[in-house]
Amino acid sequence: MKNPQPFVDEAAITVISGAGGNGMVGYRREKFVANGGPSGGDGGRGGNVLLVANRNLNTLTDLQRRRLIRAQNGANGGTSRKTGASGAHTEIHLPVGTLVYARDPDAELAVDAQEELVVDLTEHGQRFTVTRGGNGGFGNARFKNATRQTPDFALKGRPGETRELRLSLKLLADVGLVGFPNAGKSTLLRGLSEARPKVASYPFTTLTPSLGVVELDDARIVVADIPGLIEGASDGAGLGHQFLRHVERTRVLVHLLDLGAWLTEGRDLLDDYAAIRRELGRYQPELGERPEILVLNKTDLVTDPEALEDLEDRLRKAGLRALRVSGASGEGKAELVRTMLQSVTEAVAAERSAETEASSPGEEDRK
Ligand SMILES: Nc1nc2c(ncn2[C@@H]2O[C@H](COP(=O)(O)OP(=O)(O)OP(=O)(O)O)[C@@H](O)[C@H]2O)c(=O)[nH]1
Ligand SMILES: [Mg+2]
Fold first, then answer.
1. Per-residue DSSP letters for 213-246?
2. CA-CA distance, 325 to 36, in Å (whole number)?
3. Ligand 1, from 182, 323, 329: best to mutate by most atoms within 8 Å of Cβ?
């Protein structure tokens, strides 16, 4: 298997569109035409730099090595009024979920307040022209008029545009898997999708988020394995909150409780549950309201079904209902996928109706 690329979710690049080609100064030289008129063509347009959202990418790693990205310059104008070739556009492919900020060139330090959001690449295939190529300069043929029969000058092409961009990836996934280290998030993602995050019996095995696609019938949902959540993560404990931001833009959370830790270490899963919820809420209060599917994972380890029922009773008393799942044996997988799809579908419908409400003119907009 190909080694996965290291995960990078911040990058700074400079993009420069192509300069326009220069106009040409030229004269017709044809047999039998004395004093040939001006015939210098225009320069070609410079190429644009485009950003393209691509769901097959999951990291900004490539861009760390490509700090400066240019589009091609337009070619100079030619003789016989030939316009120079346009410069080729350059496409920069970025993961879906990349937020693109432009730095204010006048600001001394690039901090948030001095940046503006240029585009949020939320949909696969979305394209955005971030710098436009310069216009080509007019050739001298353009300047001929009644009083100026043989203009001996042409215009230079316009320079390309330069922009300094900060790219910040916040994964967009339908479902985010959360839970303590070792809860079995990566195993579950492997069982549900083609993703191959590393699995091992120690905490913090997964050091970076990974995405998998889960398919059922015609539906396709993207699931993110969010590593590194522990008590204090929002204050920087463990891997800290660096990955909490990748939970922000998921529609539904699947919260895994580790029956293995309950059986072998006697861990209180209600405490575990509360601890993760607290971290999510401290990072961003809205995360507390996100639809959540609770899962008791690793059911294959349970030898005393009554103890499991007692645990479920305790959860119920706390107002919680959990699905029984084993990422290892596949138990409960089908029901989990159905539940995920249903929650995601509901979340999408809710987003749509919120959008229509926002876009239909209300009283205030009409004033
Ligand atoms: N018996 C059993 N073991 C499991 C199950 N799921 C995961 N495990 C084991 O639990 C350990 C941790 O699994 P991972 O999938 O790496 O857990 P994780 O939540 O991704 O852990 P981190 O990446 O460290 O946060 C591994 O030894 C797995 O083999 C399960 O359903 N049943
Ligand atoms: Mg993992």
1. EEEETTEEEEEEE-----TTGGGT-TTGGGGTHH
2. 85
3. 182
The residue type at 8:
V
Q: Under 8 Å CB-to-CB from 191, ≥6 apart: which residues?
A: 327, 328, 330, 333
> Is the overall model pTM greater than 0.85, yes or no?
no
CA–CA distance, 117 with 166 (Å, rounded to integer): 9
The strand pair at 49-54 and 90-95 is best described as parallel
Report the pocket of ligand 1 as residue ranges, CB < 6 Å.
179, 181-187, 199-201, 203-206, 227, 260, 297-298, 300-301, 326-328
Q: Which two tokens stand for residue 58?
A: 């999951």
Task: Give tens-digit pLDDT for 314-367.
Answer: 999 999 999 999 999 999 999 999 999 999 999 999 988 888 888 776 555 544
Closest ligand 1 atom to residue 181 Cα is 25
Encoding tokens for residue 93? 């492919």
pLDDT digits (tens, 9 = 90+) for 19-73: 999 999 999 877 666 567 899 999 999 999 999 999 888 889 888 888 899 999 9
Nearest CA to ligand 1 atom 6: 184
